[in-house]
Amino acid sequence: MSKAIVIYETRTGNTQIIAKAIQGGMKEAGVEVLSKRIAETTADDLADVDAVVLGAPTYNHDLFSPMKTFLFKMEKQDLKGKIGAAFGSYGWSGESVQMMSDTMKHIFGMKVMEPGLKLVGRPSGSSLEQGKEFGREIAERIEEYKK
Ligand SMILES: Cc1cc2nc3c(=O)[nH]c(=O)nc-3n(C[C@H](O)[C@H](O)[C@H](O)COP(=O)(O)O)c2cc1C
């Protein structure tokens, strides 16, 4: 069975809602997937997964700072060749998603799904469905990669 982890941080809960939707879509597609906030995440969580999915909102045109710090911690892990994907809630510009994708691609050498998933504000209805769909797409990518 394919394994993945969704690691996210949020200030007002919007990115957490996306994280749960993505996790739901991946589970439906048969992936064993946990979702954790940064504080709950350990190095072991990254060790034996096929895919790492990162989520964080944009504040002041920047990546939410707990995720910035976490990316420096991730640098110590060998993630080369794993599938990566990024998502986040935003208000009007949403730079965080591209920043996480770029780091996974250029620094960690991961195979990154682009574009990542950017959703405005607090997701509900069709945007929740977009989250699930993104999860299913990540699951498909893992399967393709394993062939
Ligand atoms: C002080 C402040 C600064 C913000 N700066 C940006 C920004 O530069 N670009 C943007 O797209 N959204 C910005 N936002 C909107 C947040 O990204 C948005 O509220 C998002 O849904 C928060 O996600 P969270 O609930 O996961 O923390 C800002 C919000 C606040 C309160």
The CATH architecture term is 3-Layer(aba) Sandwich
* Order of secondary-structure elements: EHEHEEEHEHEEH
Q: Given the structure, what is the number of helices?
A: 5
Low-confidence spans? none
From the spread of the alpha carbons, the general shape counts as globular
What does the secondary structure layout of this molecule look like, with pairings?
Blueprint: E1 3-8, H1 14-28, E2 32-37, H2 43-47, E3 51-55, E4 58-59, E5 62-63, H3 65-74, E6 83-90, H4 95-106, E7 111-112, E8 117-120, H5 126-146
Parallel strand pairs: 1-2, 1-3, 3-6, 6-7, 6-8
Antiparallel strand pairs: 4-5
The structure holds flavin mononucleotide.
Structure description:
- With 147 residues, this protein is an alpha/beta fold.
- It has a single domain, classed as 3-Layer(aba) Sandwich (Rossmann fold), CATH 3.40.50.
- It has 5 helices and 8 strands, in the order βαβαβββαβαββα.
- The longest helix has 21 residues, at 126-146.
- The radius of gyration is 14 Å and the shape is globular.
- The model has no long low-confidence stretch (mean pLDDT 97).
Structure in a nutshell:
With 147 residues, the chain is an alpha/beta fold. The protein has helices at residues 14-28, 43-47, 65-74, 95-106, 126-146, and strands at 3-8, 32-37, 51-55, 58-59, 62-63, 83-90, 111-112, 117-120.
